[in-house]
Structure formats: C-alpha cells, structure tokens
Amino acid sequence: MKALCWAGVNELAVQEVPDPAILNRQDVVVRVVASSTCGSDLHLLDGYVPTMMAGDVIGHEFLGEVVEVGPDVRERRVGERVVVCSIIGCGRCRNCRAEMWSLCDNSNPDPGFLETLNGHATAGIFGYSHAMGGFAGSHAEYIRVPYGDVNAFPVPEGVADANAVFASDAVPTGWMGADIAGIRPGDVVAVWGCGGVGQMAIRAAYLMGAERVIAIDRFPERLTMAAERVGAETLDYEKVDVLDALKEATGGRGPDVCIEAVGMEGHGTGAQYAYDRIKQATRLQTDRGLPLRQAIHACRKGGTVSVLGVYLGFVDKFPMGAVMNKGLTLRSGQQHGQRYIPMILDRMSRGEIDASHLLTHPMSLDDGPRGYELFKNKEDGCVRAVFTP
Amino acid sequence: MVAKRSIAVAALAAAGVVAVRRARAHSGLRPGPAEWFAVTVACDPAELSAANRPDALAELAEHHEVRITPAPGGRGTELAVRSADGSVRERVRAIKQLLETGEVLRVEGQPEGHRTVLGRAALPVTRQLMRRGVR
C-alpha cells in the first residue's frame, strides 16, 4: 500500500509499504478515508522529536472504515465508519478507567525513553516516533488500531467525514483544554493559537458558558476564521502588545482562563523570541516557550492556565514566580480523547460543533509532501490539509 | 546534510538523557542503583499470589526475589522484583499488560517505509533499549 513516510528532517516521501496485519487479538484494521495534518507533526518534521527513524509512517488524526477485526474484538464490526482517537488507550489500566486515557500504562510498549526523560511514560500515539510506541501512522491506505473496541468510535450517519475526522484529535484536544481549566459561566478566556485545536478550544469555551473568548495569532486568515466561525474576539500579536490589550479588555484583571494551543515551536516578537530561537537552534533548550510565558503573565490572579500545545522537554526562563505568587492553577496533558469523542460526535450530529471549516485543503495522499509544505508555511490560507489515500 | 543533522539531533538527545540521569544521580534522591523494579497492577493481590499467579510470574519468582503487596487506596497490587535487569523489567511489564488487558502489545511487524542501512540495524537495538529502559 501507499504511505507517507518520514525520511529525515524536513523530508517526507510517499512510499510503497507492506499492508498492516492484526498483530494482537484486540486489534482492528481500518481502511483510511481521511487523515489530517496536525500541528504536532511539525515537531517531527523539524527534527525536534529525536526518536524518529527514516521509514516511519506518520499521521495520527483519521477516520475510516473497519475492514478486519481481531478474534477478541467484541464491539467493532467490519464495515463500520469509525473515527479513531489519535492517542491509544488500553481501557483497563487504572488511568484509562479514571478517564485519563493519554496516561495509559499499557499502550506504549517501549516506555524507556520517556521514563528517563520525564520520570514516567505516557500512552502510545499513532505515527509519532518510537518514544511514543513506534506505531505506524494513518497517512496510509490502511492502519492497524490496537484495542479496537475502546479506540475506534462509530460515526453517526449524517456527520460528514470532513467534520468527523477532527473528532479524532483537534476537537477533543480543544475541548479538553477548556474542560480541565474549569471554565465557569461569565468567564473571560484567552486562547493562544488559532489553528484547529485553538479554534475548537474557543468553541468549547463558549459551550461551557464563557462570556468572552479572545484569540491570539498573527495570520490574518486564521484570525478571521476564529472570529467568523467560532465567534472569538481577536488580537494580532504583531500589531498590538498582547499583555496590554488583554488587561485593557478585562478591566485590568486579566483573563480568568488562559489556554495555550501553540506548543514548543511558538512564534512571537522581540528580544525574548530571538533568545528562544537561538537557544532552541543550538539545542540549549528543547522547547520555545514565549506564548506559554505570556499566558502565565496575562492570567488573572487565581486564574487557570491550560496548556494544550505539545512540549517535549525543557523550557527556559519559566516564570514560576508568577505561577506561585499569583496563585495560578496550571493544567495540561495530551488529550484524553476517549473521554470526549462520543459526546463530541453527538454534538456534531446535533449541529452544535462543526469543525469542517478547518479542512481548507483536501488532497490526495500522493500530494502528502506538498500538503505538509502548505500546512507548515501556512501558504494559501492552509489551516489543515487532509489526505485521502 | 539531513543525515548529519539527524545524527546530531540524536546525539544531543542522548547527551540530554545522560545529563538528566547525572543530575538525578547527584540530587541525592537516588544514592545508588535501584534494588527493586516495581509496577502497580490493577488486580487483586490474590491473583498474583500462590497457585493463582500467572506462569510468567511463577517463572520469574524461581530466580528472583518477588514482593507482592496491596497498593494503597484500592489501587490494586504492587509487584516488585529485586535485582531486575533489562530482560526482567521487560517480563514484569508484560505480566502487568497481560493481567490488565489480556495481551502483550506488539509493534514489530507493522508497515514501514525505506529504512536506511544504519536505521535497519539500529531499530531492533533501540526498540529493545526503550522497551527495557535504562536504570
């Protein structure tokens, strides 16, 4: 079959690879119908995730049709249209049972690297390096899904592929960012990053009762999309001082909740940004942290900062003084998608959540390398390129 | 160029890991190599004791000191093995997986594209190292 493979730093190639097979009795095999680019893939492309190897199939946000089920699969059936959570859970360990699926004890068979780096390993992720389990990704014609009963969710009839594909990652991640922040009716929420995850966090914040949501980015088309499609007020950080603007917009208090949906390769302006770029380029720090520092600085006293952007290792100049002295709550995590996906699909079928506008560039899998170029450089207004094999 | 950069990234990552381990070793939290390797299994202690225990655990107990204790707060059972080398750690993880999920998750045999000569040689070694962990 065809698959999009990582071939080196900033190098992708469509290659012929063997078809997947059932490797464990609870596996299902899915014929991929739609597989999305995701901002977190850019860290793989740019070489910041060290356990990638040439030949790894990438991609983790996808939808398809079940074509084969293992002998111990009880719920899934051949022919079902399913969306699969990008992060793999076993459904039986203590963390999965507590609905903290991305902390699964069993879905990452090769936990050593993360145990050394972080103290403990987290769940396996499709197409996201050998540190995250070395699972083949979804930018392919077929994919093997472990623990099929708990990771693949039937899509209700009437929810289009272009909408449902984002129930795999962008929507539940955004939802979780708002959920773990404990948004209350009347809250003012600020969201850094107007990509797919940021926009879905904005939508979730409103559904949870936020009175105002202020979105921060620099790309005009993304700011426009955040305003028109999910109703955010917007700030272009290249045109205004974000900290001043947020204080002014909140009567000096600062936002009640600050959601960071950017991650380790965030952009910014000024000397702090230049400092981060140099330190990351020379590998003196692994992750750039300007939007995160800004979110902490902006947040109201006693507020909550919710970190959705992917970080791998270490951020320098982390403002712990602000966290401590302002009594902030810091929440974070990879998405616990399985907790939210059934509810999200239900809301999609009722028209309460629509993510289909994120799909700006439907493309053939053959054009995968070009799709990532458009996505990475935000060319042609690209928010998400989604591949069909 | 790309290959060189990849190697440089890998080398720096390895250096980072060594630095973390050194910092940890000097932090006073861990004076020497850990004697016990422990996991918590979501099961009743009775399932890991006496005749009920799985064969893999019985075999392990033939050659290693094994400690089974109830985990606090109803969190299942703590399974600890003394003087666990890499292969023993892999077996302990497998026992936990088998008891909790009914299978030991496999990743060998998945689709993969063109590996470099170096990559083809390095993958099994890297995978084994990551499966067992460094201690």
UniProtKB/TrEMBL annotation, chain A:
<dbReference type="InterPro" id="IPR013149">
    <property type="entry name" value="ADH-like_C"/>
</dbReference>
<feature type="domain" description="Alcohol dehydrogenase-like C-terminal">
    <location>
        <begin position="196"/>
        <end position="263"/>
    </location>
</feature>
<dbReference type="InterPro" id="IPR036291">
    <property type="entry name" value="NAD(P)-bd_dom_sf"/>
</dbReference>
<dbReference type="InterPro" id="IPR013154">
    <property type="entry name" value="ADH-like_N"/>
</dbReference>
<protein>
    <submittedName>
        <fullName>Glutathione-dependent formaldehyde dehydrogenase</fullName>
    </submittedName>
</protein>
<dbReference type="GO" id="GO:0046872">
    <property type="term" value="F:metal ion binding"/>
</dbReference>
<feature type="domain" description="Alcohol dehydrogenase-like N-terminal">
    <location>
        <begin position="25"/>
        <end position="150"/>
    </location>
</feature>
<keyword id="KW-0862">Zinc</keyword>
<dbReference type="Pfam" id="PF08240">
    <property type="entry name" value="ADH_N"/>
</dbReference>
<dbReference type="InterPro" id="IPR011032">
    <property type="entry name" value="GroES-like_sf"/>
</dbReference>
<keyword id="KW-0479">Metal-binding</keyword>
<dbReference type="Pfam" id="PF00107">
    <property type="entry name" value="ADH_zinc_N"/>
</dbReference>
Automatic annotation (TrEMBL), chain B:
<protein>
    <submittedName>
        <fullName>Uncharacterized protein</fullName>
    </submittedName>
</protein>
